Amino acid sequence: MSALKDRLQADLTDAMKARDEVRLATLRMTLTALKTEEVAGGEARELDDTEVLKVLGREAKKRRESAEAFDAGSRPELAARERAEGEVLEAYLPAQLSDEDLSALVAAAVAETGAAGPAQMGQVMKVVTPQVAGRAEGGRVAAEVKRQLAGS
């Protein structure tokens, strides 16, 4: 079992003992998502830490999008709950890249690939995506790549 999954299990037990309702519910949903991922496909398998981080990132993104939808639908109490769950998940994810760091990584990738315009966005994304994995959302990365290539 991955170390991160072990940590999630241990934190679930701690949340039960502390009667921390939000943390407990969030960790249960997350562990269920991990189990679903493990049995998806042709054959059951154990997830490694990288795959666990991908699932955590997906779950955190769902919480952010749900909070925005609840805000738009004038449901602040549900939006607050989603944000609280998102904060629980963020504690397990690597720190997000700052705008400056992301900009520097994209600039280096543009220089490395020699991309000169928006038509070569795919080449730059191939180089940048593995470098930012889990530390920046794909949409944010794509927006920065577009911005830099448009200025070329």
Short description:
The chain has 152 residues and is mainly alpha-helical. It is built from seven helices and no strands. The mean pLDDT is 91.
List keywords for this structure.
globular, mainly alpha, Hypothetical Protein Yqey, Chain: A, domain1, single chain, Arc Repressor Mutant, subunit A, 152 residues, 2 domains
CATH architecture of the largest domain: Orthogonal Bundle
* Unreliable residue stretches: none
CATH superfamily of the largest domain: Uncharacterised protein YqeY/AIM41, N-terminal domain
Measure the end-to-end span. 47 Å
Biggest sheet, open or closed, and with what strands and sense? none
The rounded Rg comes to 18 Å
Query: Globular, elongated, flat, extended or rod-shaped: what is the shape?
Result: globular
Class from secondary-structure proportions: mainly alpha
Order of helices and strands: HHHHHHH
Tally of extended strands?
0
User: Which fold name fills CATH's third level, the topology of the largest domain?
Assistant: Hypothetical Protein Yqey, Chain: A, domain1
Overview of this protein structure:
The protein is mainly α and 152 residues long. It has 2 domains: 3-90, Hypothetical Protein Yqey, Chain: A, domain1, CATH 1.10.1510; 99-150, Arc Repressor Mutant, subunit A. It has helices at 3-18, 21-39, 49-72, 76-90, 99-113, 121-132, 138-150. The longest helix is centred in the middle third of the chain and has 24 residues, at 49-72.
